[in-house]
């Protein structure tokens, strides 16, 4: 049995296949907001090749692609879970307007709690998820798996592109960890400001979020990094304890299992 999990993000779409709870294949492709249902179906077929998919779980943060995604999922003769408002994931949303929370953040919180927030003795602990994507997201998950909210900041690539576009003498550079914080040329200075600057931003936000969680629950959180850009920044962060590039697709797997078992 092979479950296909699809996370449609603003910049990239991640497709992962699961054999039980193990990722057996993973692909990252650029999100095309104007793609047709036939184009997406051909892309999926090309990536999956001969994989016999027995179920699909998907979410999308791109409103333009939701109707196309629904059309494609309707064509499939397998159990399907499209995460969105009204779909029960088992994650209580302790925020002002639950409908504003992106489906990707919900399923990521689910995976964070199930994989990192449960102690061997059955008790729970808070988790902070740092997602390095189009935006840099720092989310708080309570010890009972409740989504508590978080902080949203621009992503690394978005910030670098904006800086290059607005500053005439600056340009886009290769994103890599600089050897030193004091850059001796424009490229090194940009790399220091972007990579190390975002590491400092993350550490500052995590410190504040962790302090609030400690004050509320009396126990400090485990901090997990995920997202396509996390390998670039996470080594420069002192606050991150765990890394899990598959956290969102793992959340889709768990949500699919909960949704199908509830039927």
From TrEMBL:
How many and how are cofactors bound here? A monovalent cation. Ammonium or potassium.
Q: One biological-process term from Gene Ontology?
A: coenzyme A biosynthetic process
Give GO terms: molecular function aspect only. ATP binding; metal ion binding; pantothenate kinase activity
Among Pfam families, the record links this protein to: Pan_kinase (PF03309)
Which EC class heads this enzyme's classification? transferase
Q: Does the keyword Cytoplasm apply?
A: yes
Q: What is catalysed by this protein?
A: (R)-pantothenate + ATP = (R)-4'-phosphopantothenate + ADP + H(+)
Q: Where does K(+) bind?
A: 131
Any one GO CC term of this protein is: cytoplasm
EC number, UniProt record: 2.7.1.33
Where are the catalytic residues? 104 (proton acceptor)
Q: Its pathway?
A: Cofactor biosynthesis; coenzyme A biosynthesis; CoA from (R)-pantothenate: step 1/5
Record InterPro entries: ATPase_NBD (IPR043129), Type_III_PanK (IPR004619)
| Cofactor(s) demanded | NH4(+); K(+)
What does the entry list as the binding residues for substrate?
Answer: 102-105, 186
Q: Can you tell me which residues bind ATP?
A: 7-14, 134
Ordered alphabetically, the record's keywords are: ATP-binding, Coenzyme A biosynthesis, Cytoplasm, Kinase, Metal-binding, Nucleotide-binding, Potassium, Transferase
From the Swiss-Prot or TrEMBL record, state where the protein is found. Cytoplasm
Which proteins does it associate with, and in what oligomeric form?
Homodimer.
Q: What does this protein do?
A: Catalyzes the phosphorylation of pantothenate (Pan), the first step in CoA biosynthesis.
Which family would the database say this protein is a member of? Belongs to the type III pantothenate kinase family.
Name the record gives this protein: Type III pantothenate kinase
In its UniProt entry, the species of origin is given as Klenkia soli
């Amino acid at each position: 049995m092979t479950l296909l999990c699809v996370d449609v993000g603003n910049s990239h779409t991640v497709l992962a296949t699961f054999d039980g709870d193990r990722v057996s294949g993973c692909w990252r492709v650029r999100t095309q907001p104007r793609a047709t249902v036939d184009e997406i179906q051909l892309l999926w077929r090309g990536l999956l090749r001969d994989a016999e998919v027995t179920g699909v779980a998907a979410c999308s943060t791109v409103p333009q692609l939701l109707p196309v995604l629904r059309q494609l999922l309707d064509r499939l003769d397998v159990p399907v879970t499209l995460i969105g408002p009204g779909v029960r994931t088992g994650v209580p949303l302790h925020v002002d307007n639950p409908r504003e929370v992106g489906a990707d953040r919900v399923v990521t919180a689910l995976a964070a709690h199930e994989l990192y927030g449960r102690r061997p003795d059955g008790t729970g602990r808070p988790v902070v998820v740092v997602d390095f994507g189009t935006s840099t997201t720092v989310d708080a998950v309570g010890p009972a798996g409740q989504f508590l909210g978080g902080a949203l900041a621009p992503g690394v690539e978005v910030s670098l592109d904006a800086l290059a576009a607005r500053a005439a003498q600056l340009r886009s550079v290769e994103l890599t960890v600089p050897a030193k914080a004091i850059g001796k040329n424009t490229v090194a200075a940009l790399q220091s400001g972007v990579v190390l600057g975002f590491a400092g931003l993350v550490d500052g936000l995590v410190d504040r979020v962790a302090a609030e969680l400690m004050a509320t629950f009396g126990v400090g959180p485990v901090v997990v990094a995920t997202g396509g850009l996390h390998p670039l920044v996470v080594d420069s962060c002192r606050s991150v304890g765990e890394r899990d590039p598959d956290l969102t697709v793992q959340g889709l797997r768990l949500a699919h299992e909960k949704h199908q078992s509830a039927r």
